[in-house]
Amino acid sequence: MLTQAIKGVKDILPEDSPKWRRLEDAVRKLFSDYGFSEIRTPIIEHTVLFARSIGATSDIVEKEMYAFKDQGGDEITLRPEGTAGVVRAYAEHKLFASRPVTKVYYMGPMFRRERPQAGRLRQFHQIGVEALGVSEPGIDVDVLAALVELFGRLEAQGVELHINSLGCKDCRAAYKAALKDFLMRKTDSLCPDCQRRIETNPLRALDCKSERCKAATADAPMMSEYLDGDCRAHFESVKQGLDDLGIQYVVDPRMVRGLDYYTRTTFEMIAVDKQGAQNAVAAGGRYDGLVEEIGGPSTPGIGFAIGVERLLMMLPEAGNGAGSPQVYIAAIGGRAERFGQKLADELRKCGIPAERDYSPGGLKNQMKKADRSGASFTAIIGEDEMARGAAIIRDMKSREQTEVRFDRLVEEIKTLTRSL
RNA sequence: GUGAGUGUAGCACAAUGGUGGUGCACCAGAUUGUGGAUCUGGGCGUUGUGGGUUCGAGUCCCAUCACUCACCCCA
Fold it and tell me: What number of helices (H) and strands (E) belong to chain A?
């Protein structure tokens, strides 16, 4: 081999693609039911967009982005997440003017240069939604309802919705300061990672897996104690709305999100059987300052992203489903082969999936291939049939054969396959 | 970025330092114009790569690459 696929980048082979398509089809229908339209934004953006929105000191921006200078000297980055691009498009095309409430969804590849492991790739796929222009908690509930319903429709087992509120810029700043203060006093009882986190990401310490840290932070101040009146009311409304819809959730005051832009409502869909590693299958939250941050008008927003590979891992295995022809054409001899080619072409033009042998051997051989292809019928055409002007149609399941004159062949196959 | 594990046929796996095998899959035949079962036969490996130790290395040592898993981080 001259070379291989890039580390952490996977081919989706023909045997895998049906389940991707099934997922995508279900997602499109569902988002349309919930009033979201598709948006397709570029895979590359100016580096500054991500640096600004995700947060310059986040791990993603600091060490995981595929960032490069193109031949013209522009700083370009392969998108590591989807929200920034959508928000950029929203502001750039001034959608706030024509569509004060913008509800969109997207699906596509994202790129982060991390060490690959289970459920973590360098090119991975996300399906996400963004709802811009609504600050009321009702939209939070709708977005969460769509997320929960998606998992329901896909029959994903063993997931839990966890929610929290990070407050607005003001109350979070107050909380962060209080937490930092608390952690500094506990430094000695924290793991080395958490000692580092005090400066880089104090909230993260609440989420630490080490027992030492869990004990040390047991009586740490909680965000919920620092929410101001509006943020508290917003969170209460969201919970009330979820209750009204009968949506189960866990309030998780220690839940932390990685991206800087989140405010108020945040949430994750967690695979409960995977304690620890890569258990977040979907995550999102409100980002009320983001549009303004990148130069648009002050606009509230909320959204989430689903990790497609992580979701696929927990879906029930379904049969292969696609790719079987309805008719296999077994032709023996040069004259018959030319006839077979024409027959295949006619059937395909009628929308009947037809396959044939490009390097036909004997009939036995072709029957084997017909069987393996999963075809429902096989059209057998040899010298005898050419002479008689009629083909043999074999029902592969019942093994019954009928002779059909060439001039009625396409019509007859149409009738036979209609009932499939 | 840190740590650990694994690299043998298309796939799944064996092989005490002494001639690299088995199953599945594949191809052919038994059945010369009829598929799934059965039987018989067939091909395959530069044992990831490069060094070293040894009379002799798939096996031991070193390096390197790839993959996997965990940490970090995150979808």
Answer: 16, 16
Q: In this predicted structure, what is the pLDDT of residue A272?
A: 86
Residue A317 has what pLDDT?
A: 67
- Listed as ranges, residues in chain A with pLDDT below 50 are 320-321
* Cβ–Cβ < 8 Å for A174, A202: no
pLDDT of residue A3: 81
- Dig out the tokens for A378 from the structure: 């096989």
Separation in Å, CA A363 to CA A124, A136, A137, A275, A367: 45, 69, 68, 56, 6
Which of A316, A353, A36 lies closest to A156, judged by CA? A316
Tell me which residue of A13, A349, A305 sits closest to A150, measured CA to CA. A305
Domains annotated on chain A, with CATH: 17-168+228-313 (3.30.930.10), 327-418 (3.40.50.800)
pLDDT single digits (tens) A82-137: 999 999 999 999 999 998 899 999 999 999 999 999 899 999 999 999 999 999 99
Q: Indicate the helix (H) or strand (E) that contains A163.
A: strand A159-165
Which nucleotide has its C1' atom closest to residue A381's CA?
A: B33
Cβ pair A191, A212 in contact under 8 A: yes
Distance A2 CA to B51 C1' (A): 23
Q: Which residues, other chains included, contact A385 with Cβ-Cβ below 8 Å and sequence gap of 6+? A: A336, A391, A392
Give pLDDT, residue A212.
78
> Which nucleotides of strand B lie under 7 Å from a protein CB?
1-3, 26-29, 31-36, 66-75
CA to C1' distance (Å), from A12 to B64: 29
Measured CA to C1', what is the nucleotide nearest A257?
A: B74
